[in-house]
Amino acid sequence: MNSGATFFAGPYLDGSGVSNVTTQIGTHAYLPCKVKQLGNKSVSWVRVRDDHILTVDRMTFIADERFQSFYVESSGVWTLQIKYVQARDAGIYECQVSTEPKISARVHLHVVVPRTELIGDSDRYVKAGSAVILRCVVRGALEPPSYIIWYHGTQQIFTESRRGWKTQLDRGAPDLDGDIHSTIGSLIIESTRKKDSGNYSCSPSNSPPITVSLHSIRYTNRPTNQPNPAR
């Protein structure tokens, strides 16, 4: 009696596997390949764009140590691990079983690259003694940054040693464009001084830094060619 079940005499790929994996730059990616009844055959991972063999079973065949294959016997899953994913790692990877003819399955790796933007102008003019808030926003991230560090020139800002200075991190709050997945970092200076002028860099843990120039000006009459001081 035919029950409708399919039986395999040798290795076969479980068709329920993942065909698309999305990860964020700088994190680890895990590409699974589920093989049943492997027997004495080998499993290889190949990068399709250049046909480079990355791993065969648990052995790595690329100088880039970020690539590694490991096997969980109880589930029959061979996983290609890519550590500290870079944008160039995006693309198609193929899991191959050394049968004749070979059987294979492909996994498409998508790499998300967050971006850092300023909220407000890249040049800020303020009257000395007034308050200013510098803001940056991280957009397009799968995971929010674990921290945002501010620099004045090349020096990291430690607000506990600067009276009237503080930083703020708002995760998951809508930004000015209504993006609820953004993270906003703020540097708050309650009373600016002339020596506070210079370049300030917002440096998130998971996206590129961005710089804003602050100009703290002492004057009573504003020149006609100079922007209004803004908070």
From TrEMBL:
SMART domains the record matches: IG (SM00409), IGc2 (SM00408)
Domain spans labelled Ig-like: 11-108, 114-213
Annotated signal sequence range: none
GO cellular component, one term: neuron projection membrane
Pfam families in alphabetical order: I-set, Ig_3
Biological process, per Gene Ontology: synapse organization
Entry-linked InterPro entries: Ig-like_dom, Ig-like_dom_sf, Ig-like_fold, Ig_I-set, Ig_sub, Ig_sub2, Zig-8
Name of the protein: Ig-like domain-containing protein
Naturally occurring in which organism (per UniProt): Anopheles stephensi
